[in-house]
Amino acid sequence: MDTKKLLTELIKIKSIEKASANYAIEYCYNYLLENGLSSKIIENNGYKSLICEIGSGEKKIILNGHLDVVEADKEQFEPYEYNGRIYGRGSADMKGAVAAMIDTMIEIKDMNLPCNVQLQLVSDEETGGENCSKYLAENGYRGDFVICGEPTNLGIGIQAKGILQIDITVQGKSAHSSRPWEGENAILKACDIFNAIKKLPFTTQKSEFYEGPSINLSKIEGGNIYNKVPDLCKIGIDIRFLPGQNPEKILSQIESVAGKNVKIHSYGDAVVTKPDDEYVKKLKSIISNHVNTTVKIFGQHGSADTKFFSKYNIPAVEFGPIGANWHGKDEYVEIESINTYKKILKDFIFSIK
């Protein structure tokens, strides 16, 4: 299969919003059909996912990839090849892996597979994955092991921090700004609360893959005129907690310094795949047969669709080709790594017993 050509065609699709991401799903549906593989499209809240299955057996391996990308300049949707790399928005994150997964399915479709392989292509990972991968996992599209083709430079991202995004409303007392001591500045109180949160016990915890959770003051809204002490401030905080940490306990600690005016904006489970999982060890061994460097096993700071499968105690990992600058300018994927990635996927599938 000409995986490179498929990748360039996918990059040309400006899949930054629902309609164009859905078009990318339909493009892949037709591509699979033209190459002898039937699939089905599932729609949820207007977002489309593609499911394609081959093989049979007791074990099921899921290859999960997203076709939506973050916004970029027009020229980034005009892919080009230079020095062994393909440049363009989504080349690394993660249309390179998607193209490799699709062509791997086509190449092995008529072989005597030892297991069932399910390809899942989704259209909303970059905006949270609630309508596609989460929906699929909730409705039984699960397996024994999940590979999400996020860019990992042929390493294995076995864990990921959970997400706890909160809004805190802080009350103060208004006064004339010429006499601020007569009021209670809600903005300053909010800053004090944020600084107190950064010193709570959950912030000091560490794990094998992380030095600690991530805490970011993402939003602040307060005050409306210069000559008044603000009596109300709202802040938004993004917390990425460690696998194994209890989000309810984290929230309780936050309320101990912020009071009860704390609301959850968004929540996402951590990914807790173990380094000694049999599938992880098998994948690591197979990667070692194809690369000349030590295979890195690590934890991701960000979130991916792996979290929706980990919730059901399914080992799920991020594993993708070599590339760089995803979500930035000059995003690229190395062509040879895509070919290597396909070989690894194929060897891994045939190693399942």
UniProtKB/TrEMBL annotation:
Residue ranges occupied by any Peptidase M20 dimerisation domain in the UniProt entry? 160-261
- Taxonomically, which superkingdom? Bacteria
**Which GO terms of the molecular function aspect are on file?**
acetylornithine deacetylase activity; metal ion binding
Q: Which family does it belong to?
A: Belongs to the peptidase M20A family.
- UniProt source species: Thermoanaerobacter uzonensis DSM 18761
Q: From the Swiss-Prot or TrEMBL record, give the protein name.
A: Succinyl-diaminopimelate desuccinylase
Q: Which Pfam family is one of this chain's hits?
A: M20_dimer
Q: Which InterPro entries match?
A: ArgE/DapE, Bact_exopeptidase_dim_dom, Peptidase_M20, Peptidase_M20_dimer, Peptidase_M20A
Q: Which GO terms describe its biological process?
A: L-arginine biosynthetic process
| Keyword check for Zinc | yes
> Do the record's keywords include Hydrolase?
yes
Q: Which cofactor does it need?
A: Co(2+); Zn(2+)
Q: Which UniProt keywords apply?
A: Cobalt, Hydrolase, Metal-binding, Zinc
